[in-house]
Write a structure and sequence with these properties.
This protein has 137 residues and is α+β, with helices and mostly antiparallel strands. 37% of the residues lie in helices and 31% in strands. The longest helix is centred in the N-terminal third of the chain and has 21 residues. It has a single domain, classed as Nuclear Transport Factor 2, Chain: A (Roll). The chain is globular and about 40 Å long.
């Protein structure tokens, strides 16, 4: 069974507001993975620990406004109930979508029998990788 959580369905947020400032992340798998893995590490660590600050540290302003600490707690509780805590992942690849990059991982959560797709949408702004969307499917 697939789980689709609309936890962070804010795509392109600030990237669309100021297109000249946002650029895709990297030119190949190695560059994209090297830039995206640390961002996802912090996000998933914050998720497992219930630490909103750590979880949202790389969100762009629009996503931070959309996902408050209260919303994080609500959705995290549902994910923990259905899937459990995050355990591991395998990088699958990336897609370019305008001025953003969609990065994909196959992941395992402690309660889920099936794999869970992690879809992280990021953009590069002023030398920083920012999260503009996230799904667990």
């Amino acid at each position: 069974m697939k789980y689709l959580y609309g936890m962070m369905i804010i795509l392109l947020g600030m990237a669309l507001a100021w297109p000249g400032l946002a650029v895709p992340l990297g030119q190949n798998d190695q560059e994209v993975q090297a830039a995206a893995e640390p961002v996802l590490d912090g996000l998933l660590s914050g998720f497992n620990e219930g630490d909103y600050q750590k979880y949202s540290q790389d969100f762009d302003d629009t996503l931070k406004e959309a996902i408050s600490q209260k919303e994080f707690i609500r959705v995290r509780d549902k994910i923990l109930k259905d899937l459990g805590k995050y355990r591991s992942r395998t990088y699958l690849g990336f897609l370019r979508k305008g001025q953003t990059t969609v990065v994909l991982w196959k992941s395992r959560f402690e309660k889920a029998e099936d794999d869970v797709l992690i879809k992280l949408v990021v953009s590069q702004r002023q030398g920083r990788t920012l999260v503009v969307g996230l799904w667990f499917q």
